[in-house]
Amino acid sequence: MQNLNSQDDPYLLSRQSLDKNASEDISEKIVAIILFACALVSVLTTFGIVLIIFQETFGFFQEVSFAEFFLDTKWTPLFAERHFGVWPLINGTFLTTAIAMAVAIPLGLSSAIYLSEYAQPKVAAVLRPAVELLAGIPTVVYGYFALLFVTPLLRNIIPLEIFNALSAGLMMGVMITPTVGSISLDAIKAVPRSLREGAYAIGITKLETIFKVVLPAALSGIIASIILGISRAVGETMTVLIAAGLQPKLTVNFAESIETMTAYMAQISGGDSPRGSLNFKTLYAVGAVLFIITLALNIVSYWVANRFKEKYD
To answer: What is the pTM of this model?
Structure first.
């Protein structure tokens, strides 16, 4: 009678297969648990930050009324005559953001259109990383560059204060350009080639194809990139802290010194205000307003991306 080799035994092969599958299932469960724990840490960290911010903000509003915070037009919490109107800080934040986006949107979109539609593959492979390198430069470098180079240069042309919103906004625009350009480029490249070829087939020029076919098809991604750029500009700290100054003003004059919400938060976090004091709590009150603005912008970005998203088969 012929003896069966262990490798030819169906029972042993089946048993080995089951053991292997069980071992793989255990490994997959362990990996799933580790990934879930990492995701849970991120969620809990976010909730912890939000809880602390609004807990301190609640303490602030026990001493300062909502009306004084949202209706007053002066912000002097560190002076003898205190005012807690947050609008000068919001005004300074959106003034520099508007200047930044006036620079970042045309530069970012132009670079995205060129790299996607005009540049040769070898040229695009070099230029795209070079443009994205701007995002890797520390923001403190942008701030000092704005203060020591851009401001003196502009003062030869127009009258500016040493600290002003224009220089800070211009450098923020250069800093945000890679964000707008990179996301817009991905959105434009996602447009199917067939749409371009169909436009060319009916005699439309390349420039008309870009503006009448490609950009409308990539509209959701482009708008999302702009809104994300605005979110980054609103949350920028070091550039505006160094170049824009620390004078909260309710003004639209970009030649004057202003103060943004992030610059004030950096000023208070320097340690001069005792923990638990009203001055210290203003840090969290302003941070809560900044958090709500950023959250609203992200929600709008998500809604726009889904509302105008084009689906292709």
So the answer is: 0.83
